[in-house]
């Protein structure tokens, strides 16, 4: 399983599109959003930093599902079924891979916040922020894997990209969800990406995530987890 | 086929059935392979080779009958690392080198071959550090072969390993395969070339329409499927007498040329010579396609629907 994850991490990091869109894009957007018009105030610099780190991590997590769908199309998943690796090790290896490949986006955006925009937090806050953004990607990894098992390679790519954009925008990762129309803003509170960003934002405010935020995200984790298990079982009969 | 007592056979299939909708892809096959044997599964496209292999590897479940590898269920043998396989039409994943891929698969087995040895056996020394998705068709096929044997499994199953290879690549592939088989491993490969089956296997099992129609040495199978093909120009003479020639199994006439399938081409030709009928005579080994036409031309009990 570890070896599988290690193989997959190397593959992901060698993908130029992953490096450009998964890591480069969030940093670029962060700097664009905060540096245009003569710099931003401290609050916005920190809020946008969390939002963009969350957006990058979410996108990277979902992209694992896209790679999975491609491997399925290539016949690689079927090839793995004739090795001693158990199917559950494959899924776990994928999830483990996702938990590694979300790190670059998080680290790079936080570094840009600290070094370029002078966001100043206590050491514990940096640590807690990075940790929460890392652990909070779990629901999105499962959603991506669910799509990967469920859909064809081409569709998965589009659906995962669509999910990334939609969840990011509604969840208020690009701009505060208070700027959305009221009815949408109300829904936004309950979306997974919003709760995900809230995990981090609570820390930048010097506090901790509320029970509400955590339970909403946990709910999504269960839902996406169920979807991933269902999609996996369905596909295991055909792969 | 007899079952030997004692150590279980590498492969033992009894009465296996697998259907897809209304198509009986595998229609009650029995097959047994002893350890150390190299067996060819010979059949046309759509004969049921890939489905049989899927059943054998536990990728498919039989609806009826029983499939055992080393005396147990296929998934157990696969899980224990006793089986390696080269599936049909798998492509290689991008952004990894050949060596990384072989190393990864090798380490998923309990007692793998050293990676260097696998690469050498499969003839991949030169391309070991190239990316797996940037290889030629022949090289890709060799990598897939390397993945099948990387774990040093007791049984290697190869589904049409030479499909889409040119003559040169095909020859070098069989050289590698025979080298591996000589180490005492059990090998089952499928092919639709009679000469490949004959030249590289101890035994040939012929499958058609999901059933096993012949099982024996290459010679036996060639005889069973109708030996040689004798053809000559009729030059206007009738065709009724052709069936009475010695050895002739079947007669076909195309554009005033007779094609005789015969079990004894010598006798057939001598008879033709006596009758002074040798016009542009040719004797060729029966191609598998011809052989199957002969084998399956006989009416089937339930009446052929296709």
Automatic annotation (TrEMBL), chain A:
<feature type="transmembrane region" description="Helical">
    <location>
        <begin position="45"/>
        <end position="69"/>
    </location>
</feature>
<feature type="transmembrane region" description="Helical">
    <location>
        <begin position="90"/>
        <end position="117"/>
    </location>
</feature>
<dbReference type="InterPro" id="IPR000412">
    <property type="entry name" value="ABC_2_transport"/>
</dbReference>
<dbReference type="InterPro" id="IPR013525">
    <property type="entry name" value="ABC2_TM"/>
</dbReference>
<dbReference type="Pfam" id="PF01061">
    <property type="entry name" value="ABC2_membrane"/>
</dbReference>
<keyword id="KW-0472">Membrane</keyword>
<feature type="transmembrane region" description="Helical">
    <location>
        <begin position="12"/>
        <end position="33"/>
    </location>
</feature>
<feature type="domain" description="ABC-2 type transporter transmembrane">
    <location>
        <begin position="6"/>
        <end position="198"/>
    </location>
</feature>
<keyword id="KW-1133">Transmembrane helix</keyword>
<feature type="transmembrane region" description="Helical">
    <location>
        <begin position="123"/>
        <end position="145"/>
    </location>
</feature>
<feature type="transmembrane region" description="Helical">
    <location>
        <begin position="210"/>
        <end position="229"/>
    </location>
</feature>
<keyword id="KW-0812">Transmembrane</keyword>
<dbReference type="InterPro" id="IPR051328">
    <property type="entry name" value="T7SS_ABC-Transporter"/>
</dbReference>
<keyword id="KW-0046">Antibiotic resistance</keyword>
<protein>
    <submittedName>
        <fullName>ABC transporter permease</fullName>
    </submittedName>
</protein>
<feature type="transmembrane region" description="Helical">
    <location>
        <begin position="157"/>
        <end position="175"/>
    </location>
</feature>
TrEMBL record, chain B:
<dbReference type="InterPro" id="IPR003439">
    <property type="entry name" value="ABC_transporter-like_ATP-bd"/>
</dbReference>
<dbReference type="Pfam" id="PF13732">
    <property type="entry name" value="DrrA1-3_C"/>
</dbReference>
<keyword id="KW-0046">Antibiotic resistance</keyword>
<feature type="domain" description="ABC transporter">
    <location>
        <begin position="11"/>
        <end position="234"/>
    </location>
</feature>
<dbReference type="Pfam" id="PF00005">
    <property type="entry name" value="ABC_tran"/>
</dbReference>
<keyword id="KW-0547">Nucleotide-binding</keyword>
<dbReference type="InterPro" id="IPR003593">
    <property type="entry name" value="AAA+_ATPase"/>
</dbReference>
<protein>
    <submittedName>
        <fullName>ABC transporter ATP-binding protein</fullName>
    </submittedName>
</protein>
<dbReference type="GO" id="GO:0005524">
    <property type="term" value="F:ATP binding"/>
</dbReference>
<dbReference type="InterPro" id="IPR050763">
    <property type="entry name" value="ABC_transporter_ATP-binding"/>
</dbReference>
<dbReference type="InterPro" id="IPR025302">
    <property type="entry name" value="DrrA1/2-like_C"/>
</dbReference>
<keyword id="KW-0067">ATP-binding</keyword>
<dbReference type="InterPro" id="IPR027417">
    <property type="entry name" value="P-loop_NTPase"/>
</dbReference>
<keyword id="KW-0813">Transport</keyword>
